[in-house]
């Protein structure tokens, strides 16, 4: 490793009980506690942080509109680098990339990436109630349940073009549950079968309730620094060897091809090229699962299978524990937790796997991991490729 | 029940919503490359030219994809569910979200031909919706 190569040296996520943070903690408290925990494990303190990357849906319209200012004040920091990129749930894969660039350039040395949400405790998640400004004036008046309805439209298109079935989509939810059953921190750990997914109420055709992610609270933190600085720290550094991002639209009507995730293909292609690896080299894949269809289409676009082959690829236990591809090993947004924006947890689980700290769900000798986020309504994608030293 | 959300009309969208008030589906066409686009913008998204001219669209199209909302998008739509929300590919070559009004969801399919109908939503707002061609 070169001295300035970017590495992840600290991770932490908030403990949840029935999907909620204990004690009615605020979004700021959650973030402060995970920040301290992630820095602690590396042997760093809050005062070492000189780069702050944060976004979320708390404190809106203000002070969450300027989240780095709020968190800098709350943590008593004066960072020299900040990034509040918000492209939906994929933002945190972008933050890892941007922190890597800043560290490599010597623009900052210790970067802290933060997320917190109390959406389950506040019961703030709903399918409607959006403003009708700008592009949304052509979407909200038709009563599109969001983001669900947009993903359902993509699922219909995929079904139409490739014959993808509800059973195949259900396989993704079942595999996620099987992984969650190995993760004591997962919210949903009861056994689940394909027929249960199909028997759950249809919410927005063709997606059933159990095709949809959970609604939970949550908090996560990631600490990054240079390989040089990491030598004095307590944790085994995880290298960030490739990254890429792509974004395109805010409303689903502007997406040209709903049967193919262009953004995922671009982001993933760039990340694989930078890292000099291929999908078949990946030991553990953490792929955003807002809905089952998100995973299926991401697998195709990232090159784990061909276009239109996602349905067959996820069948027959291939992505369940013991299958050919270890996918969403913590149970994912479908069965572990999904606090509004899930992207930070993809990276956290990838790091746990690479460090060998994943307990019963540990993938043997995991050396190379992929974390791939999707944001908005299939609006953005960002990929990180991580490697054990 | 809360009122349904209405478009917040702005400088880009005013000609479109003025058109629907007159029961005409209007689209911006680029005077440079000649192509239409939607939603309306200050620059053509194809060639980034800034000359726009509004023309009446045929109101005919096909369903590109759709969903059936089994639960309304928030309280304002609760009583209406289930209903169809679709992306319509208009004959002119632009894509537009709307509802397809039907009593028979079995007839809703990707590729099905549809045509525009106009529904008064408020004093100053008429919404373009669609029905299956051959019905109504």
- Given as residue ranges, the uncertain stretches of chain A (5+ residues, pLDDT < 50) are none
Q: N- to C-terminal separation of chain B?
A: 29 Å
Beta-strand content estimate of chain A: 15-25%
Q: Biggest interface between protein chains, with counts per chain?
A: A-B, 39 and 36 residues
- Report Rg of chain A: 19 Å
Structural class based on helices, strands and sheet pairing of chain B:
mainly beta
Radius of gyration of chain B: 16 Å
Give the class-level CATH name of the largest domain in chain A.
Alpha Beta
Strand order of the largest sheet of chain B: 3-4-5-7-6
Strand percentage of chain B lies at 35-45%
Largest sheet of chain B: 5 strands, mixed, barrel
SS-based structural class of chain A?
A: alpha/beta
Order of helices and strands of chain B: HEEEEEEE
* Mean pLDDT level of chain B: 96
Count of helix runs of chain A: 13
General description of the model:
The complex is a heterodimer of chains A (389) and B (136). Chain A folds into two domains: 6-124 and 217-238, 3-Layer(aba) Sandwich (Peroxisomal Thiolase, Chain A, domain 1), CATH 3.40.47.10; 146-215 and 243-388, Thiolase/Chalcone synthase (Peroxisomal Thiolase, Chain A, domain 1, 3-Layer(aba) Sandwich), CATH 3.40.47.10. Chain A contains 13 helices and 14 strands. Chain A has helices at 27-42, 67-75, 91-104, 119-122, 148-162, 166-180, 194-199, 227-230, 262-275, 292-302, 310-313, 332-335, 343-355, and strands spanning 6-13, 16-17, 20-21, 51-54, 81-83, 111-117, 202-204, 207-208, 218-226, 238-247, 284-287, 326-327, 368-375, 380-388. A ten-stranded mixed β-sheet of chain A has the order 5-4-6-9-1-10-14-13-11-12, sandwiched between helices. A two-stranded antiparallel ribbon of chain A has the order 2-3. Helices cover 33% and strands 19% of the residues of chain A. Chain B starts with 13 loop residues before the first helix and ends with a strand. Chain B has one domain. Chain B has 136 residues and is mostly beta strands. At the A-B interface, helix 5 and strand 7 of A face strand 3, strand 4 and strand 5 of B.
């Amino acid at each position: 490793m070169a001295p300035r190569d970017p590495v992840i040296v600290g991770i932490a996520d908030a403990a949840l009980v029935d999907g909620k943070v204990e004690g009615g903690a605020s979004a700021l408290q959650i973030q402060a506690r995970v920040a301290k925990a992630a820095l602690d494990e590396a042997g760093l303190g809050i005062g070492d942080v000189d780069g702050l990357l944060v976004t979320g849906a708390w404190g809106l319209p203000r002070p969450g509109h300027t989240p780095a200012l709020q968190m800098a004040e709350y943590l008593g920091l004066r960072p020299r680098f900040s990034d509040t990129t918000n492209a939906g749930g994929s933002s945190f894969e972008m933050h890892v990339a941007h922190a890597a660039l800043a560290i490599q350039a010597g623009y900052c040395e210790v970067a802290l990436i933060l997320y917190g949400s109390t959406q389950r405790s506040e019961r703030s998640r709903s399918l409607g109630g959006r403003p009708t400004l700008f592009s949304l004036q052509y979407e909200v008046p038709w009563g599109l349940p969001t983001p669900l309805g947009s993903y359902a439209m993509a699922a219909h298109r995929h079904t139409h073009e490739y014959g993808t079935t509800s059973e195949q989509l259900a396989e993704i939810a079942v595999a996620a549950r099987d992984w969650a059953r190995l993760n004591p921190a997962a919210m949903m750990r009861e056994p689940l079968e394909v027929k249960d997914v199909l028997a759950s109420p249809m919410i927005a055709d063709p997606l059933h309730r159990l095709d949809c992610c959970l609604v939970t609270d949550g908090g996560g933190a990631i600490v990054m620094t240079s390989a040089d600085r990491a030598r004095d720290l307590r944790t085994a550094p995880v290298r960030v060897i490739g990254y890429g991002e792509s974004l395109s639209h805010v409303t689903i009507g502007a997406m040209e091809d709903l049967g193919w995730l262009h953004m995922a293909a671009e982001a993933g292609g760039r990340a694989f090229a930078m890292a000099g690896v291929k999908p078949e080299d990946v030991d553990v894949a953490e792929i955003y699962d807002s809905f089952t269809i998100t995973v299926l289409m991401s697998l195709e676009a990232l090159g784990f299978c061909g276009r239109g082959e996602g349905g067959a690829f996820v069948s027959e236990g291939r992505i369940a524990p013991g299958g050919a591809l270890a996918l969403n090993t913590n149970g994912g947004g479908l069965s572990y937790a999904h606090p509004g924006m899930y992207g930070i947890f993809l990276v956290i689980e990838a790091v746990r796997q690479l460090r060998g700290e994943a307990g019963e769900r540990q993938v043997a000798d995991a050396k190379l991991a992929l974390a791939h986020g999707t944001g908005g309504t299939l609006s953005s994608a960002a990929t990180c490729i991580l490697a054990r030293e | 029940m809360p009122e349904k959300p209405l478009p917040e009309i702005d400088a880009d969208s005013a000609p479109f919503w003025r058109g629907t008030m007159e029961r005409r589906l209007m689209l911006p066409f680029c005077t440079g490359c000649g192509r239409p686009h939607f939603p309306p913008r200050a620059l053509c998204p194809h060639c980034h030219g800034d000359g726009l001219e509004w023309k009446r669209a045929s109101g005919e199209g096909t369903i590109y994809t759709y969903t059936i909302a089994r639960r309304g998008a928030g309280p304002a739509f609760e009583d209406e569910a289930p209903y169809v929300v679709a992306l319509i590919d208009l004959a002119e070559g632009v894509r537009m979200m709307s509802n397809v009004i039907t009593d028979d969801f079995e007839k809703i399919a990707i590729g099905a031909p549809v045509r525009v109908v106009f529904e008064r939503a408020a004093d100053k707002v008429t919404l373009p919706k669609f029905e299956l061609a051959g019905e109504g």
